[in-house]
Amino acid sequence: MRILFYLLALLAGAALSFEGAIYAELGKAIGQLETSFYNFFMGSIILGLLWLFFGKGSLSYTLEAPKWLLLGGVLGVVYLTSIVVSVPFVGVGVTMVAVIIGQLVMSMIIEHFGWLGSKKTRINKEKILAVISMVVALILIN
Amino acid sequence: MGLFMILFTLIGGITLSAQSSINGTFSRKAGTIETTFLTFLTGTMFLTIFVLFFGNGNIPALLEAPKWQLSAAFLGTMYLLLTVLAVPKIGVIATNIAGIAGQLVIGVIIDHFGWFNSLVIELDIKRIFSLLFMLISLYFIYKGNKRSSEPTEA
């Protein structure tokens, strides 16, 4: 059962790569910031429809939840902006490696301390080796 | 300047891992679809302001863009939806490692065939080794996660 969620996460990454390659083309025609805007705008419509027909949770929890739980959207925009700004200066390769290192190291720390409501799971040898292998993979690919 | 930019990009990565943790937590009470919907909705609000003040592209050109380019929005949606789904089950780090692995494999394939007008970069020994290290990384994260969740669940 757990393996299924690993596969879903793999699929998520695959979708992201296709998306990136296609949006690179769209960005040439309409601009990068505009492409991000289009992505979020269209995503809101798609999810609005999904929510209307299949939403089983409670959207009203939005109003009761602590405010920091509502920051997901802004953080996504910060991420996108940081990439758009740095690529022209340091190139796609270095940007990708830096983003992923930041992402992986921080994920490990967040989970280790159980921050942001995540399940507390300690850093161990295997996790550190996993991050190192991923960094090696990224350097080799560039 | 270059070093400053790299630090800036590191922060980009940090926000992404914070996003997946926060969304994972929010989804436990609000639901997967609801969480993803809210993320897109608030993201749109911020980007509307950004585009209005800093945008110098051409939004009306969206109407003339080929439909296959526009369909990428479904992929973006799928990415976020699947991430929100996976984080509560396997954790932040495993979701991110598996996500990056999927990204690299498809990225290498797209480069190799030059799909979507991308630069053609053929699969060479270096890239094969890269994919190998990625598999090793996936193996370690699976093992590591299993090990650190065993004592707490038992």
Automatic annotation (TrEMBL), chain A:
Protein biosynthesis keyword on record: no
Membrane-crossing residue ranges in chain numbering: 36-56, 68-90, 96-116
Entry keyword set: Membrane, Transmembrane, Transmembrane helix
Pfam families in the record: DMT_YdcZ
Cellular component GO terms, alphabetical: plasma membrane
InterPro entries assigned to the protein according to its UniProt record, in alphabetical order: YdcZ (IPR006750)
PANTHER family named in the record: INNER MEMBRANE PROTEIN YDCZ
Name under which the protein is recorded: DMT family transporter
The organism's taxonomic lineage, starting at the top: Bacteria, Bacillati, Bacillota, Bacilli, Bacillales
From TrEMBL, chain B:
Domain of life: Bacteria
Signal sequence bounds: none
Keyword Coiled coil: no
InterPro entries: YdcZ (IPR006750)
Annotated TM spans: 36-56, 68-87, 93-113, 125-142
Record keywords, A-Z: Membrane, Transmembrane, Transmembrane helix
One GO location term (cellular component): plasma membrane
Name of the molecule in the record: DMT family transporter
Species lineage: Bacteria, Bacillati, Bacillota, Bacilli, Bacillales
